[in-house]
Amino acid sequence: SGGSGVYQAEEARISQGVVENNHTGYSGTGFVNLANIAGSYAEWTIQSGTAVGATLDLRYANGTTMDRPMDIIVNGTRIATGRSFPPTANWDTWTTTSLPITLKAGTNTIRAISTTGDGGPNLDKITIH
Ligand code: GCU
To answer: In this protein, which residues make up the domain named CBM6 (predicted)?
Structure first.
């Protein structure tokens, strides 16, 4: 396949963050609470049988009143800078933001990295389709 699938945040490689389940509405067994610092990230490793364009959906919650921007890095290339993750009313309310990505044949990495001292939103999962 072309990397299509659902990839939980709690199964990603996490740098400066923790898996938690103290809010509702997540899929899988929990979500990732990234540290409230710039540079905290989750990184997924995705296999794709072919080089292909796809859509990346990131499901997140942001229970604050402030944006929690992140950069999105695919295979080491920053494809989105300061991508907006606007408030979702509370930490139990999840929404999805989508962007186009390009996968290569073989192993791909997708990293969502916090860009401000507030850190990122809570991350539930990504879906590639
Ligand atoms: C609260 C919330 C966490 C969230 C954090 C944040 O502590 O319970 O789930 O990650 O705020 O501001 O990032």
So the answer is: 5-129
Token readout for 116 is 């401000």
Write the pLDDT tens digit of every residue in 92-111.
999 999 999 999 999 999 99
The Cα 105–Cα 2 span in angstroms is 8
119 lines ligand 1 (CB under 6 A): yes
Task: Say if ligand 1 is within 6 A of residue 114 CB.
Answer: no
Domain spanning 5-128: CATH superfamily:
Galactose-binding domain-like (2.60.120.260)
Structure tokens at 111: 């990293």
Cβ of residue 122 lying under 6 Å from some atom of ligand 1: yes
ipTM confidence score = 0.99
